[in-house]
Design brief:
alpha+beta, CBS-domain, 3 domains, 3-stranded mixed β-sheet, 3-stranded antiparallel β-sheet, 13 helices, 13% strand
Length: 405
């Protein structure tokens, strides 16, 4: 489906652990009398079936998301299974429920198919290694589907639960808070049960239950934090929070001057590089560090800067949430807000975090109009899409938004 799939290194650790536990524990108990090599073959094949099933489970989420216009950055398989990384959250409660429910339903479907194949292996008297592998696949998919239906973040059941509350109350924040409290309660019960199991001698299972409980608790808190941030920034554009009149540097001063006169005096993450009113690029502390110390007194900023064609730039009408997600994705601290090669302002991660903190502390609602057009000579910019407009324009010809006069 055009979605990159990444295997996190922790997957290999749990893959070996599952194969080993099946080869030395579960399979000899269920199917005694086989050779060690056969048990290992069954264990490895079963582990492959498990993670292939997890991938299909995640692809079912991604299919519903893409069908409804949401982009999936990638799917990552890791220690606890898998996760579909969306570039944005669904804005509709019904869509969230459908997306979340798709995963467990797919797991139950896989369990049913493998269960049918297992039944055929019994009728046809196929080798035990085959029936053991498909039988385990059917069982583990049924367990996976049932476990994911628990009403706890970040499990699918938690999202179904939140989506149902959201659809009923029309309040995403309230629904998320309620779902988070339920998730934390379940996670604490799981961790308590795990500790009890450890005390009574079931150390391995107890540890697993404690770790899963911690994972659910951590996931619930992260989901609540992400939802709060998303709701706080809803309606805000880059243009409404950017710093206009940002301090700039010329391209012909040395890197040593840049450090001593700018970075050590004004501790900003970077500076736009300007010459005769034209934006050339961006110089950051990281890019300046690329110049060897012995050459800093002679090398110019032009050599250390990120050229405009490669610099992180955006339009003033882009949403603040998109800018924050881009900073996280690209691991950058600053974005230039431009129109062509003209600099309108800059927005930094600190700007965004301070905006989030202030709006949450004062419980400010997202504005309906988030950016007053910037007047630059006889030119200004649309409050909705950021397009350049003539000075007396009433309605943007690009997006149709009415402009304040």
């Amino acid at each position: 489906m055009g979605i990159p799939v990444r295997i996190h290194y922790t997957l290999w650790l749990v893959f070996v652990l599952i194969a080993w536990s099946l080869a030395y524990g579960y399979m000899p108990h269920q199917y005694p009398g086989l050779s060690p090599l056969t048990y290992w073959a069954i264990g490895i094949a079963s582990a492959i079936v498990l993670f292939a099933s997890v991938l299909i489970h995640e692809l079912s989420h991604s299919y519903i998301a893409k069908k409804n216009g949401l982009l999936i950055a990638r799917i990552t398989l890791f220690f606890f299974g898998g996760v579909s990384e969306m570039t944005e959250e669904p804005q509709d409660a019904g869509l969230e429920v459908r997306m979340a429910a798709a995963g467990p339903l797919m797991s139950f479907m896989i369990a049913g198919v493998l269960g049918g194949v297992w039944y055929l292996t019994q009728l046809l008297a196929l080798p035990v290694a085959v029936s053991a592998t498909v039988g385990y696949g059917a069982l583990i998919n049924a367990v996976l589907g049932a476990f994911n239906l628990l009403p706890a973040f970040p499990l699918d059941g938690g999202r179904v639960f939140r989506g149902s509350l959201w659809k009923h109350s029309k309040n995403l924040i309230g629904a998320t808070r309620t779902a988070t409290r339920v998730s934390e309660g379940l996670s604490l019960l799981m961790m308590l049960g795990g500790f009890v199991a450890i005390i009574f001698g079931d150390f391995v299972d107890g540890i697993w239950i404690v770790v899963l409980g911690w994972f659910i608790k951590s996931g619930a808190e992260t989901s609540l934090r992400q939802t709060l941030i998303g709701e706080t920034l809803t309606g805000l554009t880059v243009g409404s929070i950017m710093t206009q009149g940002a301090l700039t540097v010329p391209p012909d001063i040395t890197v040593q001057q840049l450090v001593s006169d700018y970075f050590l005096v004004h501790p900003h993450p970077g500076y736009p590089v300007m010459k005769e009113g034209r934006l050339l690029g961006l110089v950051t502390l990281q890019s300046a560090r690329g110049i060897p110390k012995e050459q800093m007194a002679v090398e110019k900023v032009a050599e250390a800067m990120i050229p405009l064609e490669r610099a992180p730039i955006t339009q003033p009408g882009v949403s603040a949430l998109d800018a924050l997600q881009r900073m996280a994705r690209e691991r950058i601290e600053m974005i230039l807000v431009t129109e062509g090669d003209r600099l309108l302002g800059v927005v930094t991660r600190d700007d965004l975090m301070k905006t989030i903190q202030t709006r949450q502390e004062w419980q400010l609602p997202g504005p309906q109009t988030t950016w007053t057009p910037v007047q630059v000579g006889q030119v200004r910019y649309c409050i909705q899409c950021g397009a350049q407009l003539p000075s007396q324009t009433v309605t943007c010809p690009h997006c149709g938004a009415n402009q304040p006069q």
